[in-house]
Design brief:
Helix content: over 70%
Number of helices: 23
Structural class: mainly alpha
Distance between the termini: 54 Å
Length: about 500
């Protein structure tokens, strides 16, 4: 879209997504000025202003439709995620004001936190791919400094270093994707690329660029095998963990949702994304069930949930992926900020079925819940494509432990909330004519069904020989991160470390 042809009012509305970037940048600049409380109040006001600006942008785009120009983009997906990030950022800034009281380098933390939120907001507002890449790389660099807030701790240095290596690989892949997409279309405007793809398809060079974009998203979302850094950054302050898991790691999913009209015509990229996401879901879910540490369990949960979100994109369900992104961000922000109580409730839920639920209850719920949800979805038209039917069945299986443990009344509420959320996000996300290949849907279905069967065996028959043999492997994270880390650290050791040897990490056996 040529911005010079836009009416005056839409042209002014186009700059709404840039307001959060400006407010967070001003908060970062003012972090060193005035009193401590004054600096925090300015940061809180900036985060609240960013939330209000994102809400205004959402209203504007619903009234006028998507707008793009001057390197910026205003659309419903960007506005929804900007509203989410603004709200979560405001909560985290307020929490940090109390949490960091009396800490050394408090103002540096505030400056880096505001800059991270500014960079995230710029990713959400970017239409020009170089602007998007620069903001995404900037997010990684500021976050790296936050992860090293307690730089005197060896575990913090190790995790931040592993994140740095993974991020630089992702940055190289991202810049390669930008170069290939720009060469294929002769422009770096996403709006122009989508218009060209709608009329002329996606050429081979652009499809190669989309494969690199999928690699970037997988690395940024901490998917297997380069996932170890995400479960080892627990030495950072709790608000940083909340920001990372609720607002930053989700960016890979957001970018793929925004690129969906192009990805829908790139089968190689979608198959790669599905393969990586499915492996990550299975591995992370099994490992999460063995963790005792509160924050480490939540971190493995994030790896699995990011896998589910990316898998939904791969199966042609971007609206469901957006719903997953929003729901996961809100839940995970709350979970980290009140970690103790949340995990105690999760542990109680995890242990209750083993103590009081017979196998026949699980079997009944495993048949009834997916059947009811899929049947209702097909009857209402909400679940039409095979991939959507699979998503409904997976939701039903996910509710089995809840229903089988006596909390059957909560299952319909969750299902209704999911259908309502999917209805809203389907209205917000621009549809693309795409039906996931049946072979891909079947492969994913078999993997997820096997995962459910293993989880059921662990809960119902913990004494089985196969379960006892699986447990130490799952507890050790299947030793994927250890092998990858040894190879990386042998080549790029942690700066200041006396040896390149791999330090004991939260994924290693013996660490709880």
């Amino acid at each position: 879209m040529n911005s010079s042809t836009l009416p005056l009012l839409p042209l002014q509305l186009l700059f709404l997504p840039a307001v959060p970037v400006l407010l967070h940048t001003l908060a970062a600049a003012g972090a060193s000025a005035g009193s401590r409380d004054g600096a925090w109040r300015r940061a809180e006001a900036g985060a609240l202003g960013a939330t209000i600006a994102a809400a205004a942008a959402l209203v504007a785009v619903l009234a006028t439709g998507p707008l793009a120009g001057f390197g910026l983009r205003l659309d419903t997906v960007g506005a929804v995620v900007a509203l989410l990030v603004g709200f979560v950022g405001w909560v985290i800034v307020r929490f940090s004001h109390r949490y960091l009281q009396g800490e050394a380098h408090e103002r540096r933390y505030l400056r880096l936190l505001s800059l991270t939120l500014a960079a995230v907001s710029l990713v959400l507002a970017a239409d020009h791919l170089l602007l998007l890449a620069g903001a995404w790389i900037g997010t990684s660099l500021t976050l790296h400094r936050l992860l090293r807030f307690y730089a005197e701790r060896p575990a913090a240095r190790l995790a931040a270093h592993k994140k740095f290596l993974s991020a630089r690989a992702a940055d190289a892949s991202l810049l390669g994707a930008v170069a290939l997409l720009g060469a294929a279309y002769g422009t770096l405007s996403l709006e122009s690329m989508m218009a060209a793809a709608a009329g002329h398809g996606v050429p081979a060079l652009a499809q190669a660029g989309l494969v690199l974009l999928v690699v970037t998203a997988a690395l940024k979302c901490a998917q297997v095998p380069l996932h170890g850094w995400l479960v080892q950054v627990m030495e950072a302050p709790t608000p940083v963990s909340s920001l990372l898991h609720a607002g930053v790691v989700n960016l890979g999913g957001f970018v793929l949702i925004r690129f969906w009209p192009l990805l829908a015509q790139a089968p190689a990229a979608l198959w790669l994304l599905a393969a990586v996401a499915t492996v990550s879901v299975v591995v992370a879910t099994l490992v999460m069930g063995t963790r005792i540490s509160i924050k480490v369990a939540l971190a493995w949960s994030t790896v699995a949930q990011m896998g589910f979100m990316l898998l939904q994109v791969a199966l042609g369900l971007p609206a469901m992926a957006l719903l997953h992104l929003v729901a996961h961000s809100l839940y995970k922000a709350h979970a980290f900020l009140v970690a103790g109580g949340v995990v105690q409730r999760q542990q109680a839920l995890r242990l209750a079925p083993a103590a009081s639920t017979a196998a026949r209850h699980w079997a009944l719920a495993a048949v009834a819940l997916p059947a009811v949800i899929v049947g209702a979805g097909i009857a209402s038209g909400a679940l039409a494509a095979p991939a959507a039917v699979l998503a409904g069945a997976v939701l039903g299986l996910a509710l089995v432990p809840l229903a089988a443990s006596g909390r059957i009344a909560r299952a319909p509420a969750v299902a209704l909330g999911w259908f309502a959320g999917h209805t809203v996000t389907s209205w917000l996300v621009s549809p693309a004519t795409f039906v996931a290949p049946l072979a891909l849907v079947l492969v994913v279905a078999v993997a997820l069904l096997a995962l459910f069967a293993i989880q059921a065996a662990i809960v119902l028959r913990p004494g089985w020989k196969l379960v006892r043999q699986l447990y130490p492997w799952a507890y050790g994270g299947f030793y994927v991160d250890e092998r990858v880390s040894r190879a990386l650290l042998a080549r790029w050791p942690v700066p200041g470390s006396p040896t390149p040897a791999l330090a004991l990490s939260p994924t290693s056996p013996g660490v709880r």
